[in-house]
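Lab notebook: predicted structure, single chain.

Context: the supervisor wants predicted structures on file for every construct in the current expression panel, including those that have not yet been purified. This is the next one on the list. No modifications to the sequence; it matches the entry in the shared construct table.
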Amino acid sequence: MKSKIHTLASLSLLALGSTLNAQGGFVLFGDSAAKPAPEQKAVRPISAPYFHEDSFVTTDLRAWYVQHDFDSDTKGILNNGSASVMALQLRVALTESLQLVAYKDGYTEFDDAGPVLDDNSGWNDIGAGIKWAFIQDWENQFHMAAGIGYEFSWGDEEVLQDSDELRLWLSANKGFDQLHLGATVNAILSEDDSDSLLGNSDMITAHVHADYYLTEWLSPVVEVNAYFAQDDSAVPFSGVDAGSLPGGDGEDTYTVALGAELRVLEGLGLRVAYETELNDNESLFGDRWTLSAVYEF
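Prediction complete. Output recorded below exactly as produced.
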């Protein structure tokens, strides 16, 4: 396990070192982008890190640690076990309106998670894509973006990875001075007929965000997430954003996350959120704590 943590730490240092000389608003091809006033800057999404994408073009590094505690009512697939996920995301502003998004990677460990998952551990799939911010109205604090990404099946099936998926998304953000609202919709299209016992499925996801600039160092955050499986399945058990599980048509999952961002240094946001299910279905969720740090260049 220590070697896995060291690997992730090395990747973090490498990505950080490559951008140490970049100033605020770094753009790879073009002039540095202007930054909004601090009170008008939205908090980056905290929950559903693989799917919740805002409409802003930034260059930043995001580190994540997610601790899941599972619901015991899961048809014998899970115990009252848990899972931890460590991941690192990189976003690079290619131009003022185009962004490279490396949105999925990392390492997952299950702990006493039942007869199927037990104490398995392994690497996650790799996902990356391009985001186009086609509306950037800073005067009215209104932004929209569209993106396309692909998840490569380079992860370990033992931790419910190893699936090829095409991702399409659309997002919108609107600010009202200190209040910032956002929404994202994804279409996740399975690209393979997984050999996994539990299968795979197309999915639609939706995410809503609200934060309020309370002080120069603190913003409370509320987010709601929804996951809609598009295919029937012999195993009605949804992997939501944690694993490639089919769920089955009608096994939708809704969650709410309450959190905050603490800004201790310029460009650095430290965030925490508690998230739980709003409905009672069979899913790989239960409740979770998410810790993350965002450093924006």
